[in-house]
Give the backbone structure.
Amino acid sequence: MSVEPCSTPATPPSTPATPPSTTAAALPRRTVLRTVAATSGLTAMAALDLRPTAARAATPEAATSPASSRTELVLLGTSGGPVPMPGRAGPASVLLVDGHAYLVDCGAGTFGQYAAAGLTAAQLSAVFVTHLHSDHLADLYPLLWLRFGGFQPLAGPVHVYGPGSAGALPAARPAGRKVATVCPQAPAPGLTKLWAGQLAATAYDVNVRMRSEGWPDIRSVVRTHDIRLPRTGAGPAGPMAPAMKPFEVMRDERVRVTAVLVEHPPVFPSYAFRFDTADGSVVFSGDTAPTGNLELLARGADILVHEVMDLPTLTLAGLSSGQLDHMRISHTDATEVGRIAERAACPVLVLNHLVPGSTQLIPDSTWQLKAAQGYSGQVVVGRDLLRLPVGA
């Protein structure tokens, strides 16, 4: 039985645009700043305010006041998934710009972590989904569904941007293995159809609350957008991330968001996002193996938030050869990520989507030492509810 769409038609996706330029002078200046910091004895802890939210949590009122209007990166959850990991929630990050929250991914636990960070429903301006894996989507609908009665957006509806349909399913591995197909008439829905199906499944609750509690029509406060790819020849059968220039996804008076395709087989499309603000630039890798597209997108950014895994620990954990092969071709080992940040000339590297994410398995010092290989900047090991100023 097909599901009738319940949402209003999405606003037409953003058209491709030229990425923000990086002047030749900007990169040497960052190199000079790093050198000065090193010679003056500054450490990552001294240069950045790395206290957890509990130590410096802002009230919702303070978050929107002029005194707190700087751009800030807030890590809500820092573990890869989908298996829960002690000490870290699923992947989700917020870029807070002038009190407006731009959310990147919605892993398990995002609903609670968003509130724990002192953020309100009214502050949420937009959500960006890097790819349609469950550990990046788990709390997308719950966050918007459970809070839609409280939305009084600061800047109109909450816009949600993410991948459209892959168009086809990948072949089963190993080749020839028979696998059942869920919903064969539409086996690879994109973001907008995913939202419509979840809205249809929860229609009773939504309709009752609009009638009994005066909640607004959720379709008027949430708008979904399937990101439209420029013509690159990319596809689910490959190449998944051919060399490409960054393209524009969204722009408002506070941020400009650009994206590129990254390598995360077998999932297609998978995106990395760059946010350019008046205070500086932040890049979110999403899940990816090392790829030139990401290095181009991140070139000269102030902060690179990059996924990371520790392959030796995963090997000891008893993963099958097939699972380890998947990790090798779809993710980035801790010993490689520093060199990526170095080539992109990013002065701050934030480790995110840590696999394994349990704080009981790998100490932060190990993550830091491995990620520092081949890198002259500052390595920050992501912890839930960590806040970092941008461009400070």
